[in-house]
Amino acid sequence: MTPADLSLTVLHAVRRAVDEGALRVDVPARVKVERARPGGTGEYASSVALGLARPAGLDARDVAAILRERLQGSPGVRAVDITGPGFLNFTLDGDSGRELVREILRQGEAYGRRGPTGDVAQPVHRADVRAAVTADAVRRILASQGTLVRVACEDAADPDWALLGARPEAEHARGRLTTDIVPLPVPFGAAELHRRFGRDAARWGLLSAAGHDHAPLGDELLRQHEDNPLFRVRYAHSRARALVRNAERLGFRPEPDEPAAPAGSVDPSASELLALLRDHPDVLASAARHRAPDRVARHLEAVADALLTYQHGVLPLGDEKPSAAHRARLALAEAAGTVLAGGLSLLGISAPDQI
């Protein structure tokens, strides 16, 4: 892992801490890492916690502890220590993410999901289409984290909600339970949304924004263009599947046990993609805890963008012969596609193999 790779990893940890509400600061444009100085530990160090402490209103060592929690287990990082007033010190290893990729490919779309926990939840949603679709996605996400879920509506359900895959399992008299899923409503009914956008695009439009924000329900949802996040996510998944098909024609398959790069080096685009894949279980847990499907949507956008950047070096070029590195890169791309498919399924959105 190079200093640039490590800088991206630390910056990603800061973003996670901000997204999860653990830090209330502006995310810096970059994070500086440098060789550890005498008195430190490991190979590299960063003073990022000291710079964030004042705007966060916290002690620098507390900020460092928040970041260390999100850095432990990152690809290529063996240990994270806090020294002095709040320096983060990193001990690196030769981990290329092989264990992570192997685990994702072994679990498939179940990666990031948990077995039964014994927890029970009954989300109650307002009687409108956005709340109904949000409640359906919350049900899927909670269930993925081992919670037994029964959805209820505060009033009579609209049969048209079924067009978008949302239907309460039970209704109850007004006032008996607290209505806790109340996103801003939209000026369309389920039938109109289905007619205009179809199920997948309508669900993305309803779920991709936080509940307190207005849902993006314009014609951009149907554009086959990179400025459409839904298109990017589904296209990235289809590219992962296409890479596997094309590799088979070239006579090789994904192999996560092979080294993707020479010892001691990591492609920055691979490092970013690995970090996002490693975050996936935490993102699902956070989305379940906050009942926020938009967190899954934002994470899928980040994975898709990282995969689309990474994909260009996966297959051999020209007369180049397939190598162990190509097999490992293909395995990482396939793992990313698997995470995208699993995340889309939790939002109730299909992941086509070809677009």
* Category by helix and strand content: alpha/beta
With strands numbered from the N-terminus, the spatial order across the biggest sheet is 1-2-4-3
Tally of separate domains = 2
CATH architecture of the largest domain: Orthogonal Bundle
Overall mean pLDDT stands at 91
CATH third-level topology of the largest domain? Isoleucyl-tRNA Synthetase, Domain 1
Report on the biggest sheet: 4 strands, antiparallel
Counted beta strands: 9
Low-confidence stretches: none
- Spatial extent as radius of gyration: 22 Å
Please, could you describe this protein's structure?
The chain is of the alpha/beta class and 355 residues long. It folds into two domains: 3-92, Gyrase A, domain 2, CATH 3.30.1360.70; 96-355, Isoleucyl-tRNA Synthetase, Domain 1, CATH 1.10.730.10. It contains ten helices and nine strands. It has helices at 3-19, 48-56, 60-71, 98-107, 129-144, 190-207, 229-249, 268-290, 293-310, 324-346; strands at 34-35, 44-46, 77-83, 87-92, 120-121, 124-125, 148-149, 152-153, 170-171. The strands form three sheets. The chain has a four-stranded antiparallel sheet, with helices on one face. Helix 8 packs parallel to helix 10 (324-346) and helix 9 (293-310) packs antiparallel against helix 10. The radius of gyration is 22 Å and the shape is globular. The protein starts with a helix and ends in a 9-residue tail after the last helix. The model has no long low-confidence stretch (mean pLDDT 91).
